[in-house]
Amino acid sequence: MLILTRKIDEEINIDSNIIIKVLSISEGQVKLGITAPDNIAIFRGEIYSKVKQETIEAFKNSNNKPMDLSKLKINNIRKLKDGH
């Protein structure tokens, strides 16, 4: 794990096409802006984990062949309520 210290308006570049910018810091929260190509899926960690777990559970309850979770792409997640 790479650990960096950044101030407001400073950026982190990943490869040549992903930029993470610190937008604000207040009350123990950091607001980040992420610029990346459209083909790069970006998820909050807890959303990704929940969707991954629900996908695994759905597979366990089906008779289908295993799916490659590394190719999982979910678009336009606005809200994910518990149990839905």
Task: Describe this protein's structure.
The chain has about 80 residues and is an alpha+beta fold. It has 2 domains: about 1-35, no CATH class; about 45-75, no CATH class. It has one helix spanning about 45-60; strands spanning about 10-15, 20-25, 30-35. The protein has a 3-stranded antiparallel β-sheet with strand order 1-2-3, with no helix packed on it. A hairpin with a 2-residue loop joins strand 2 (about 20-25) and strand 3 (about 30-35). It is elongated and about 50 Å long. The chain starts with 10 loop residues before the first strand and ends in a 24-residue tail after the last helix. Mean pLDDT is about 80; it is low at about 75-84.
Tally the structural domains. Answer: 2
Low-confidence stretches: 75-84
Main sheet: strand order: 1-2-3
Q: Would you tell me the overall average pLDDT? A: 81
Instruction: Characterize the main sheet.
Output: 3 strands, antiparallel
Global shape: elongated
Count of helical stretches: 1
What structural category characterises the helix and strand content?
A: alpha+beta
Strand content is 15-25%
What's the gyration radius in Å? 17 Å
Alpha-carbon distance between the termini? 33 Å
Helix content: 10-25%
The ordered H/E elements are: EEEH
**Tally of DSSP β-strands:** 3
